[in-house]
Design a protein that fits this description.
The complex is a heterodimer of chains A (about 180) and B (about 80).
Chain A lengths: L2 H23 L2 E8 L4 H16 L3 E6 L18 H9 L18 H11 L5 H10 L3 E5 H7 L12 E4 L1 H10 E6 L1
Chain B lengths: L1 H5 L3 E6 L7 H10 L7 E6 L4 H11 L3 E7 L4 E6 L3
Parallel strand pairs in B: 1-2
Antiparallel strand pairs in B: 2-4, 3-4
Classes of the chains: A alpha/beta (about 180), B alpha+beta (about 80).
Chain lengths: ~180, ~80
């Protein structure tokens, strides 16, 4: 083998290694949304964007943290809690149906008004959007630390087929793999 | 344009007039699986935004956007399944 050939082989080896590294680190066709506010409007927007991305065959990961988690509570499920947990439980919205608005809350009149206006315009309700997200494989990841802080138990959350319980490490892993990550 | 579209042989028709964004796009996504390759799918939507949604979506999903026209208070959006 001539010296030139040896050099070429060496170069190809190096390039192959670099391409492999690039491929490993390349973002996938994934969208990652952080859901924190716990407001009805923001949560609706989250699910609409998630579903739009799902229609594009993107994988979608929703990371629910802090106030955001209240949207996933099921009011029919009762669990035993300690004093602080019970207090938090009473103060937090008991389900997606009780979420407040970020604007025009109007002492509780805002959310039902928005819901009825949206219905008038044939927009899907948050609960319908959530059911569709389940159908389209949108994944929900819930921050365990927030659950602990607010005394929210797994047993009081809605039945959702693609749901798991994670820490920030999982969220960082998710958005490293995603093309986009937004905090709603 | 609408005459040409009306003359098309539609394989799948999706009536998404009962729903607002993102309903029509999701209905299209569901229905595309039932459409044969090379077949034309027509989406009926009362939301004008569906037109550009489906244009972009078709392009990305490697299908072909065919056209659209306004019918009686709603839009008919045509695309061809290519893959």
């Amino acid at each position: 083998m001539t010296e030139e050939q040896t050099n070429l082989e060496e170069m190809i080896k190096q390039l192959t290694a670099r391409v492999e590294t690039l491929e490993e680190n390349a973002p996938g066709d994934k969208l990652c949304l952080g859901v924190m506010s716990g407001d009805l409007d923001n949560t609706i927007a989250t699910f609409i964007i998630a579903l739009g991305a799902a229609a594009y065959d993107m994988e979608v990961d929703l990371f629910f943290t802090f106030w955001g988690i209240a949207a996933l509570r099921d009011p029919k499920k009762k669990v035993k809690k300690d004093f602080l947990g019970t207090m938090f439980g009473k103060m937090l919205p008991s389900s997606s149906k009780k979420l407040p608005l970020s604007k025009m809350q109007m002492m509780g009149m805002g959310p039902p008004m928005i819901r009825s206006v949206m219905k008038m315009h044939k927009a899907k309700s948050l609960e319908e959007l959530m059911a569709e997200a389940a159908e389209f494989g949108v994944r929900i990841h819930i921050c365990t630390m927030s659950m602990d802080v607010m005394g929210i138990k797994k047993e009081e959350l809605i039945d959702y087929p693609h749901m798991d319980f994670v820490g920030v490490g999982a969220f960082v892993g998710m958005f490293q793999e995603a093309k986009q990550c937004w905090f709603m | 344009m609408s005459e040409e579209l009306k003359a098309l042989d539609v394989a799948v028709e999706v009536d998404a007039r009962g729903t607002a964004c993102p309903g029509p796009l999701l209905e299209a996504k569901r229905a595309i699986a039932t459409c044969p390759t090379g077949g034309v799918m027509c989406i009926l939507s009362s939301d004008e935004g569906t037109i550009i949604d489906v244009q972009r979506w078709s392009k990305k999903m490697k299908h072909e956007y065919v056209g659209d026209y306004e019918d009686d208070g709603f839009w008919r959006v045509y695309m061809k399944k290519m893959v």
